[in-house]
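User: Assemble these into one structure.

Assistant: Restating your components, then the assembled model:
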Amino acid sequence: MVTIKDVARDAGVSVGTVSNVLNGGRVSEARRKLVEASIEKLGYQVNTLAKGMRMQKTDYVVVILPNLINPYFALLLDALESELSAVGKQVLLCLSGDDAEREVAFMDMAKQNKVDGIIGVTYSKVEEERIENMAFVSIDRHYKSHIPCVAGDNWQGGWLAAENLHKRGSTNLLCFMTMSSVDSEVRKRRVGFTEYCMEHDLSCNSVEMSEKQIVSVYESYGSRKLIHNMLRAYISPSLGEHSIDGIFTSSDHLATIVREELEEMGKRVPEDIQIIGYDGLQFLNQGKPIVSSIAQPVHEIAKQAVKSLTDMIENGKAEDVTNIPVTFHEGPTTKPLETISE
Amino acid sequence: MVTIKDVARDAGVSVGTVSNVLNGGRVSEARRKLVEASIEKLGYQVNTLAKGMRMQKTDYVVVILPNLINPYFALLLDALESELSAVGKQVLLCLSGDDAEREVAFMDMAKQNKVDGIIGVTYSKVEEERIENMAFVSIDRHYKSHIPCVAGDNWQGGWLAAENLHKRGSTNLLCFMTMSSVDSEVRKRRVGFTEYCMEHDLSCNSVEMSEKQIVSVYESYGSRKLIHNMLRAYISPSLGEHSIDGIFTSSDHLATIVREELEEMGKRVPEDIQIIGYDGLQFLNQGKPIVSSIAQPVHEIAKQAVKSLTDMIENGKAEDVTNIPVTFHEGPTTKPLETISE
DNA sequence: CTGAAAGCGCTAACAG
DNA sequence: CTGTTAGCGCTTTCAG
């Protein structure tokens, strides 16, 4: 391996001078040329380990995500990698599998590896001391501590969902969410949803299920049954005009499950009941929407997260940015606007 | 920051002894207890940078993938991360965006960072000197050089596709693939497909399109048009009994495009024409198949890739493993087997 | 401007 | 077994 010493010897200068040309220090033009020639000739590359050790920092950023099975996280990671590499940082990937212990282990690892910072969608309550001296930016999750949070405008998302269900003909609405203990940010969706309903005199119901019960919904008969029963409770001829005809779910994933359950109950979607999900996932991530949905602005979120991280690194602080605009994406689970006049 | 020196001082032993308890060297039970207590008390963590520098290696593995928009890559990365973290390695993520220059830059970076190795789905022809002394395992791509390749059994995949189209009633088959210059492994799909057709006296056509033209198919009107024309050429009443009634595509992505085009042409899928894609992607990555498909054994591929990488690291070589069994996943673009007797 | 030298924290001889 | 010590490759004073 060719080191800075080799370059120095070959160029006939000291290592200090080589280091200076490498890092933009003051070097006479003549010597700079000499050194650059030797670097080229020898094919020298800095050893980032040695550099990192000396500087007590690296250009790594740890990205913590629950998994990549959920396309929303995959898309987010894709966007984050793009933004980070644009500012010369490398992604050290950590998939927590929704396991708080793994998250903690990753944060310790991050400290050991002298990473520049952490960007993450984490579920565990992050303890202050775990991340002392480390820049940390949270996506979608709001903590009480000084960790800056970046998120789409959840209040607006809830409002938009209610508005679109309403304008497309639904009047008996249901807000159906899964919730973990650190989801204070996500809760705003229900607030926006409910406020729209109140302002427009719409019947509005709301259900929250523990995230733990939902997570394994495709494998678990029990949780599926729970959803089934829940829907039965709100949808029935015996309820008359109070029977639900519009549902807002906390994710596209949940929306598809609800859709399947409704169709098994003999309901037509969207003719009898409309559904709006959350995240804006598309068929193969680039075709048609899977369900009608409030789309997360993945790229803007990634961009802001990296910006906030940079602020944290440089100034030790960054503002919360939780009002990035979301949009309604029309999909197969709502009626088109045109048909309302029929 | 607490270093090994601090621990040594606190425990009243030498740094060598601390290093020994850390790395399983010979230490008397009494001192080991002492040191462990100090480590606990001081909250010591090894500095991986210093360790890496001394050892001239780290526990990082670079994973190079084109993107995470394609769910197949996202799923693969999820599985790779899981396998790698199980053997104590960290994922340094590189998304190449199908850009050969970026791939090369990443490989250089990998060398600089003293990573243990690289696992990647790369498009550029990897030059030997780029990866001197580095363990490299390729997924799905076969190179002429000594780089071991891990892949699903592509020959079997092609065979299975033809067999299932046939058994479900199609007799005029078409193999429709996109192809890049380094896809020698993927080409085996067509071989398997064709061989089944020959053995069973089926009419068999085959088309290859340059990958460059397909990549941006959702954005590009031109490439879409190309597919349209191509399909028109093979499907028309004027062809009589030679008109295609079963299509095998090189990806699920392409399968969905073909399906859309066929439906715009007024053909019914699967009644008139059946389609089988490749990769086995599911709705939201865990529900129903998007299209009928030959499913890649993502977890087995990931497991074998990590095993091959370990072999490379330890023995400097590893065998190609390109016969990991694939399976047919029934989806909405083929007729059920039962209906054949009708 | 330039060179010499002091470590960053750790491991691996080596001598005791 | 245990302590001492020489670097790994790099940046950064500090003299010159």
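The longest strand of chain B covers residues 172-179.
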